[in-house]
Design a protein that fits this description.
single chain, 3 helices
Length: 141
């Protein structure tokens, strides 16, 4: 956000004092905190995908209702679940990239194609493609 004049530090400090004092009491009255004192609106329970920037981070475990649970509770839940059927067990992924792909005359730009094959425990395989106009880097196995 662009500021047209000097920052109003007194206003910012007043806001922070309110949010750290009176604001907290407002949230407490509205039961915005869990029993443990975790503010329901904070980022404690955000799900983030596997990402190298989060490597080494603590990963929370959740039950089927998205409530945090301990590792022991998670192990017990996993033991109670039946194994997935072979048709859902992915055993191998293969991919290759095809650059400068031109298959029909009405397409005036070269395409990049990534061909994917997934093999499952029951023997079936699924083949699918991603097509884009952006150049793809070669896939290194």
């Amino acid at each position: 956000m662009k500021r047209d004049g000097p920052r109003d530090l007194r206003g910012e400090q007043a806001l922070m004092r309110w949010f750290g004092g009176d604001g907290v009491r407002v949230f407490q009255r509205r039961r915005a905190f869990e029993r443990e004192g975790v503010f329901i609106g904070d980022a404690s329970y955000l799900f983030v995908p596997d990402n190298p920037r989060y490597e080494g981070s603590v990963k929370l475990l959740f039950d089927e209702h998205d409530h945090p649970i301990s590792e022991e509770q998670y192990r017990k839940l996993k033991q109670q679940q039946p194994p997935p059927p072979p048709a859902e067990i992915l055993i191998k992924k293969e991919a290759t990239a095809i650059g400068e792909f031109r298959s029909w005359s009405s397409c005036t730009v070269p395409l990049s194609v990534v061909a994917n094959r997934e093999r499952y425990a029951d023997g079936h395989q699924e083949i699918w493609f991603l097509i884009d106009t952006q150049e793809v880097n070669p896939i290194v196995a």
